[in-house]
């Protein structure tokens, strides 16, 4: 039980072992890699697009210019109305002159058509390109892709002006060039491969940089987490080293300032708590001597009470009761002071619990006032004096503040993980107010105004709880569904408290 004014250490918290997937390190690493991947892919895509456009544009301009120059030179030898033989000779000449470039040439003039020998193996000009070439006196081109292969198709109408051919008026003769772009495709594929090869090292470098940066960021965070756990364990003198001037340094400095203020406050509270404990112990000790004399005097006066009458008899009776009450309060203060000083120890003995509980009732003259269910044969190692205090306080409270019948039961708890014994005290009185249940075991707490002047010191249940906890057990209070209060004490079969050699 936590004593009033005592500053407990926080219970240690279990660290999660499965936080790596959602931890700050993983999120930083993922963010860096994602940004690097998007940057690398974006840069690679843009570079690839620009390079591809440049390569194809240069190739296209070169081919169109070569085709126009070759046609201009060849058509000078054609008659104004070429026949099939002239068309065949024209396309054969053009294809032969550019055999290394794998030119495939098609010529049309009215209903006449002529093609180089390799034209059948490639895709020819589309209908859209034919229509554009036949209606416009300019060169038209398009790229045609079939599977993994692409070709450049150029349509060039032959025009004339007067006796010579110019780019003015359509002559009716149209030439088409189909050039496979194998070298260009190979260059584009090389670009793709280069981008892919550059992306993987970029991602690896990004991951490495992310790990280094995450380490630098997480190092002060881990130090802060460790310092916080040490502070939770009661080490209020812990401090962090402040490095740099960034936000993490500000956080470390704020933690140090908070820790310093908290340490100062805790030190002052502990000093005041220790002083209060010493005061309670000293004053209780100092009161014992005069109380012993007062008790002796009240005993003498009590023997003379039958011969006294009136106010004198009432005064002697009041003095006797209040002296006894004060003596009990001083004894309880001395006992609670021993708990505060961690000087309370267990003197364990192997007892038959049923026999021990019956002895507690018999010593106080309660056997006829309490119903019992105490099976024999349940043994445990407990401190007989402290167990007597526990049971006497609970039964005494039930008799004073509860209603008859009061029942004391003993049972064996057969939990496989933690076997123990259960001692239960119940009554049939009005029960405990719900607002009072959480505070019953606090010092000097009384459940209602009617108990403020009772003979109880207000420390009985607090001492009871301390004795139970010293045994490694638990105690709790509740209201019975049918009315009345019930107090349950759980004690382990093997106590967890201190054990003095007997």
Write the layout of secondary structure elements.
Layout: H1 24-75, H2 84-97, E1 104-109, E2 112-115, H3 127-135, E3 140-146, E4 149-161, E5 164-180, H4 182-232, H5 247-304, H6 310-340, E6 349-352, H7 353-363, E7 370-373, E8 379-382, H8 384-401, E9 406-413, E10 420-426, H9 460-470, E11 474-479, E12 485-492
Helix pairs in contact: 1-4, 4-5, 5-6, 6-9, 7-8, 8-9
Side by side, the strands of the main sheet go 2-1-5-4-3
The poorly predicted ranges are 1-20, 495-502
The major sheet is characterized as:
5 strands, antiparallel
Number of domains: 3
CATH class of the largest domain: Alpha Beta
Provide a count of the helices.
9
Mean pLDDT: 77
**Order of SSEs, N→C?**
HHEEHEEEHHHEHEEHEEHEE
Question: Which shape, going by the Cα principal axes?
Answer: rod-shaped
The residue fraction in helices comes out at: 40-55%
Strand content is 15-25%
Which CATH architecture of the largest domain is right?
2-Layer Sandwich
The fold-level CATH name of the largest domain is Beta-Lactamase
Query: What's the total number of strands?
Result: 12
N- and C-termini, Cα separation = 27 Å
Subcellular location: Cell membrane
Protein name: histidine kinase
InterPro entries: HAMP_dom (IPR003660), HATPase_C_sf (IPR036890), HATPase_dom (IPR003594), His_kinase_dom (IPR005467), HisK_dim/P_dom (IPR003661), HisK_dim/P_sf (IPR036097), Sig_transdc_His_kin-like_C (IPR004358), TCS_sensor_his_kinase (IPR050428)
GO molecular function: kinase activity
């Amino acid at each position: 039980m936590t004593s009033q004014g005592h500053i407990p250490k926080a219970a240690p918290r279990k660290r999660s072992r499965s936080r790596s997937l959602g931890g700050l390190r993983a999120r930083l690493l993922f963010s860096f890699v994602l940004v690097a991947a998007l940057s690398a892919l974006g840069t690679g895509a843009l570079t690839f697009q620009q390079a591809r456009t440049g390569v194809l544009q240069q190739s296209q301009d070169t081919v169109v210019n070569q085709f126009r120059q070759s046609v201009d030179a060849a058509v000078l030898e054609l008659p104004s109305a070429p026949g099939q033989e002239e068309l065949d000779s024209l396309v054969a000449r053009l294809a032969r002159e550019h055999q290394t470039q794998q030119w495939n040439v098609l010529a049309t003039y009215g209903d006449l058509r002529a093609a180089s020998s390799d034209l059948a193996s490639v895709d020819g000009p589309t209908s859209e390109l034919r229509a554009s070439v036949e209606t416009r006196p300019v060169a038209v081109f398009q790229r045609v892709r079939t599977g993994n292969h692409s070709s450049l198709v150029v349509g060039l109408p032959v025009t004339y002006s007067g006796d010579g051919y110019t780019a003015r008026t359509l002559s009716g003769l149209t030439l088409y060039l189909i050039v496979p772009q194998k070298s260009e495709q190979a260059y584009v594929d090389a670009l793709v491969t280069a981008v892919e090869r550059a992306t993987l090292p970029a991602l690896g470098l990004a991951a490495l940089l992310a790990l280094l940066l995450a380490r630098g960021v997480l190092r002060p965070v881990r130090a802060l987490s460790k310092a916080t756990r040490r502070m939770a364990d009661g080490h209020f003198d812990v401090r962090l080293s402040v490095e740099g001037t960034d936000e993490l340094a500000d956080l470390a400095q704020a933690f140090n300032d908070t820790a310093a203020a908290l340490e100062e406050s805790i030190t002052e509270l502990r000093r005041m708590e220790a002083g209060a404990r010493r005061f309670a112990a000293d004053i209780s000790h100092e009161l014992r001597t005069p109380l012993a004399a007062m008790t002796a005097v009240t005993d003498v006066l009590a023997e003379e009470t039958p011969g006294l009458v009136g106010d004198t008899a009432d005064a002697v009776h009041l003095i006797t009761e209040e002296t006894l009450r004060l003596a009990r309060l001083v004894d309880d203060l001395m006992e609670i002071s021993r708990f505060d000083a961690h000087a309370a120890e267990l003197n364990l003995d192997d007892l038959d619990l049923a026999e021990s509980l019956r002895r507690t009732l018999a010593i106080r003259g309660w056997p006829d006032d309490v119903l019992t269910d105490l099976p024999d044969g349940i043994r445990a190692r407990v401190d007989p004096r402290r167990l007597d205090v526990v049971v006497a306080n609970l039964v005494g409270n039930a008799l004073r503040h509860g209603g008859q019948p009061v029942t004391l039961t003993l049972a064996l708890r057969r939990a496989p993980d933690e076997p123990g014994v259960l001692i239960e005290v119940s009554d049939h009185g009005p029960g405990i107010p719900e607002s009072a249940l959480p505070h019953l075991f606090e010092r000097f707490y009384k459940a209602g105004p009617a108990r403020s002047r009772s003979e109880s010191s207000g420390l009985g249940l607090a001492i009871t709880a301390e004795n139970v906890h010293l045994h490694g057990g638990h105690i709790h209070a509740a209201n019975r569904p049918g009315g009345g209060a019930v107090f349950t004490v759980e004690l382990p079969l093997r106590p967890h408290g201190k054990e003095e050699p007997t």
